[in-house]
From TrEMBL:
Cited Gene3D superfamilies: Winged helix-like DNA-binding domain superfamily/Winged helix DNA-binding domain (1.10.10.10)
Domain of life the protein comes from: Bacteria
Organism: Gramella jeungdoensis
Pfam families reported in the protein's UniProt record: HTH_34
Domain Winged helix DNA-binding: 16-95
Family matches, as InterPro entries: WH-like_DNA-bd_sf, WH_DNA-bd_dom, WH_DNA-bd_sf
The protein's name: Transcriptional regulator
Amino acid sequence: MKNIISNINKAFDHRVRLGIMSVLMVNEFADFKTLKELLGATDGNIASHTKALEKKKYIKVEKSFIDRKPNTRYLATETGRKAFQAHLDALEKLLSTDVNINKKET
């Protein structure tokens, strides 16, 4: 039997990373506070998972000030969008694969 999960991207294994990319795929950008609230994650979780996605060049980080307060926002890169879509395609393929292990060969 072939490896049916070979095209699943390990970078999106964690639910927080999956959530971050899902938000960024349908929005031009999201700031730190928004991601934290939407995903119900801690500051540390958001920071570590965005750093991991940034290291893979799947997201871009922009830092600025709004009314003298620091603001960090995240954008999906073209590389990230392609990788995430390939991951989703692999999940869909996995779900549609007939992997009935109880079949008897004749």
